[in-house]
Amino acid sequence: MKDLKFNLFSFLLACFLVFSFFVIKDEKNDQEKKIYNIGVLEPMNHKALDLIFKGMKDELEKNGYVDGKNIKINLRNANGDQSNLSLMAEKLIDEKNDVLVGITTLSSVTFLNATKDIPIVISGVTFPKESGLVKDEKKSNTNVTGVSDRTDLKKEFQLIKKVMPNIKKIGILFTASEDNAKRQASEMENILKNEKIEVVVNSIMNSNDINQVAQSLSKNVDAIFVPIDNTIASSMTTLTKITDKYKIPVFPSADSMVKDGGLLALGVDQYKIGENTAKIIIKILSGENPGDIPISFEKDCDIFLNEKKAKSLNIKIPQEILKKCKIVN
Fold first, then answer.
1. For the structural domain made of 153-267+302-327, what CATH number should be given?
2. Confidence at 165, pLDDT banded by 50, 70, 90
3. CB atoms within 10 A of CB 53
4. How confident is the model at residue 59 (pLDDT cuts 50, 70, 90)?
5. What is the number of alpha carbons within 13 Å of residue 85 lying toward its C-beta?
6. How many CB atoms lie under 10 A from the CB of residue 164?
7. Single pTM value for the model
8. C-alpha 111: how far from its chain's center?
9. Which of 87, 97, 169, 228 could hold 39 in an S-S bridge, CB 3.0 to 4.6 Å?
């Protein structure tokens, strides 16, 4: 009788272990087969934003997250239409994406206005705190984290001064509706005034204003500074076509803007911004709370130079700067 009970117990135990094995295996397979959805929102088309997206996608793939296999990247671009941006943000939220990526401040703020639950990774946002996206850049305690593209404008002015030691008057051009650009323009204006440089500040409402404003500005300054500005970035060739006629160099704030006709910039590599964005996405997909992940800042900024532009404007770049430059003709 005892043997019978023992055999019955052994049989039931074996059945339980076999059942548990297959349940665990099925759960593991389900986890391995899970496809994560990543919703990405861009306000418009231009090279800097394309580089951020490419860097993000490439870095995800390097770490085993391949679009179309174990992740699905849902990219939406508003093509410069702000009302369209809100509709696209709501659609990405309704589609139950696991992570939302806002490329630029405008996209990130639009996401945050629509959800406080889905993790939001901001990307290429110059002033995360000032824009109301986080209260603390070290730990938001909310659903928001991400990557900033903020640079040191004092160092950028020092570069301008080394390239043009006799400069007396600098124009600042930005888009009035872009908060990042407006803040950077104001910061640079204060720096220039403290350095006893005369400043002429002009803003545009949209890309249609560039022709007229650029002509007026080019007649009255020695150089033009452009902050991180999506509208102007998408129309850099229009701007520099005019400034070139007056032999006025443009000092922008992104590598892609230098490549599109600017002279020189101290800025972050947009592709790296995308790579760092992907690293944060991976942390969130691995279970980390976005509110515990600090905003990432690029520690080392690069100097981007359009060497062809320097030659066409007859501007000699000091050797000490040339040694450090990344040429982006």
1. 3.40.50.2300
2. very high
3. 21
4. very high
5. 21
6. 17
7. 0.78
8. 15
9. 97
DSSP codes joined into one string, 91-124: HHHHTT-SEEEEESHHHHHHHHHH-SSS-EEEES
Q: Which distant-in-sequence residues (6+ apart) come within 8 Å of 182 by Cβ?
A: 174, 176, 203
Torsion of CA 99, 63, 72, 85, to 10 degrees: 50
26 by DSSP, 3-state: which? helix
Fold match between domain 36-149+270-297 and domain 153-267+302-327 = yes
Q: Which residues pair with 304 in a beta bridge?
A: 265, 326
Task: Give me the residues paired with residue 39 across strands.
Answer: 74, 100
- Residue 20 reports pLDDT greater than 60: no
List the CATH code of the domain at 36-149+270-297.
3.40.50.2300
pLDDT of residue 24: 47
Give the burial string for 85-101 (b: 16+ CB within 10 Å, else e).
beebbeebbeeebbbbb
Complete DSSP assignment for 190-249: HHHHHTT-EEEEEEESSGGGHHHHHHHHHTT-SEEE--S-HHHHTTHHHHHHHHHHTT--
Instruction: Tell me the pLDDT band of 26, cut-offs 50, 70 and 90.
Output: very low
Residue 7 pLDDT more than 70? Answer: no
Summarize pLDDT for 244-289 with one digit per residue, the tens: 999 999 999 888 899 999 999 998 889 999 999 999 999 999 999 9
Q: Distance between CA atoms of 99 and 121, rounded to whole angstroms?
A: 7
Query: Beta strands 302-305 and 264-267: pairing type?
Result: antiparallel
Report how far residue 108's alpha carbon sits from residue 268's, in angstroms, rounded to the nearest whole number. Answer: 19
